[in-house]
Specification:
Layout (H helix, E strand, L loop, with lengths): L1 E5 L10 H12 L7 H11 L1 E5 L1 H25 L30 H17 L8 H21 L23 H38 L6 H4 L1 H94 L4 H119 L1
Antiparallel strand pairs: 1-2
Helix pairs in contact: 6-8, 6-9, 8-9
Length: 444
């Protein structure tokens, strides 16, 4: 028997209606702390429950499944196949859909259930297992899984996808600062150097291991190791030493060219920085001279204006002696107004000339700074070009050596594997021989 919540509107079992009851209880007790007793009382008052046996539950679920099947069957008769529903690939080329591989341990509960099912199915089918064609079918299925994965990996991304806001599905381009770019380039350069160092360390270890293995094969032990294996090892050791010498020479040549390029870049940088420093010093000197010249010009104009004012004052004083008191008052007001206008013109003229001077100096300074920034960018481009050229030159120098080293490495690993097996057998034989010698001594 089981008890379930019933939806009051439909009369059907609906366990999710508990969320609605919780929502109603929260609205009713809003602003108050949770009280367990209040919740129990509200649940007893509001909730509608039903008790059913397991058989009734199974019958209801079976009825729902049958009703869903009937609805799907009726809808399938009216549904029209769309062009997009038909795939043009061979994922379902007569063998059914292809699923991803899934590894299930036999000791797990799922694995034991699948083993029981497989055993029962084989008993019902009868005959010998595995079938003769089972391996072929398995290999074919494995191939189709691999092809499907490759198609999904190499499939070009469509450009027709749009997001909800109407923008394309592609991520926006990155906007990186010059400092970020410099750090990324430095990281890439350090990574290449680290990878190169690890590869050279591995190659050195292999060279030394070959030399040690050859040293452990004296000519007197050819009866065990065979002269063919010993001579092959000596040949590999000689070739390895010559490859190391050749790599060392090539690396020295590449490093020499790289240093020359770096020296050229450094000389170019020093020259440009010296030119920029000289140009900036000359500009500062020019600004100082022009500012002093402007100050002298302004002072000269001020002196001329003050002399003009003194002359006007003298003329006014002479003319005021002949005027009555009433006209003198009007003349004095007009004279003071004219003098104030002259003073204002002096100030405005000074400000205008200073603003023109500062604007001209700022424009010239901006042009010089822009020119210097372009020079720094040119230095940076020249430095990057030198690094790229040095790297490409090193790759070109080492290309032939790397190919021969790769071939030598393959042969060396094969020979070393054979030699290690021989060493193990020799050690076992020596140990057995020593044991026999000890046993014979004890018998004596």
């Amino acid at each position: 028997m089981s008890c379930s919540i019933v939806h009051p509107n439909t009369g059907e079992v609906d366990d999710m209606y508990l969320n609605e009851l919780i929502k109603q209880f929260n609205e009713k007790t809003e602003g108050r702390p949770f009280d367990e007793n209040l919740w129990k009382a509200f649940f007893r008052e509001t909730a509608k429950l039903i008790t059913r046996c397991d058989r009734c539950i199974d019958q209801v679920e079976q009825a729902k499944i049958e009703a869903r099947r009937r609805r799907l069957a009726q809808g399938a008769e009216k549904r029209v196949t769309r062009a997009g529903d038909i795939e043009d690939d061979d994922e379902t080329d007569g063998y059914g859909p292809v699923f991803e591989a899934l590894v299930v341990p036999r000791s797990s509960p799922e694995g034991r259930i699948m083993s029981k099912w497989l055993t029962a199915a084989r008993k019902r089918m009868g005959g010998d297992f595995p079938r003769p064609e089972a391996r072929k079918l398995m290999e074919d299925y494995k191939r189709r899984m691999h092809d499907r994965k490759m198609r999904s990996t190499l499939k070009p991304k469509t450009g027709t996808l749009r997001t909800k806001d109407g923008k394309t599905g592609r991520p926006p381009p990155l906007s990186l600062t010059e400092a970020t770019k410099a750090l990324a380039k430095l990281w890439l350069q350090k990574g290449r150097q680290s990878l190169k160092g690890r590869l050279q360390a591995k190659a050195k270890d292999l060279y030394e291991e070959i030399d040690r293995a050859v040293a452990k094969m004296p000519e007197k032990d050819d009866w065990f190791y065979t002269s063919e294996l010993r001579l092959a090892g000596e040949n590999l050791a000689n070739v390895g030493r010559s490859l190391r010498e050749e790599r060392k020479n090539k690396q020295a040549q590449a490093d020499g060219k790289a240093r020359k390029m770096q020296d050229d870049v450094q000389n170019y940088r020093d020259k440009k920085e010296a030119e920029m420093a000289t140009e900036l010093a000359e500009f500062e000197k020019h600004e100082h001279v022009e500012r002093a010249k402007l100050e002298r010009e302004l002072e000269k104009r001020k002196i001329d204006v003050m002399a003009h004012k003194a002359t006007r004052q003298q003329e006014f004083d002479e003319a005021s002696k002949k005027l009555s008191e009433f006209r003198l008052k009007e003349a004095r007001a007009k004279f003071e107004k004219d003098m104030a206008a002259v003073d204002a013109s002096i100030v405005s003229e000074r400000q205008k000339l200073l603003q023109q001077f500062e604007a001209g100096i700022a424009s010239q300074r901006e042009a010089i700074l822009t020119k210097h920034e372009n020079a720094r960018q040119a230095i940076l481009r020249k430095s990057n070009d030198a690094l790229n050229k040095a790297r490409h030159n090193e790759q070109a120098q080492m290309q032939n050596v790397q190919k021969r080293e790769e071939e030598w490495r393959k042969q060396a690993l094969v020979w070393l594997n054979t030699a290690n097996k021989k060493f193990a057998k020799k050690a076992e034989a020596d140990a057995e021989h020593e044991a026999q010698k000890k046993a014979s001594r004890r018998r004596r």
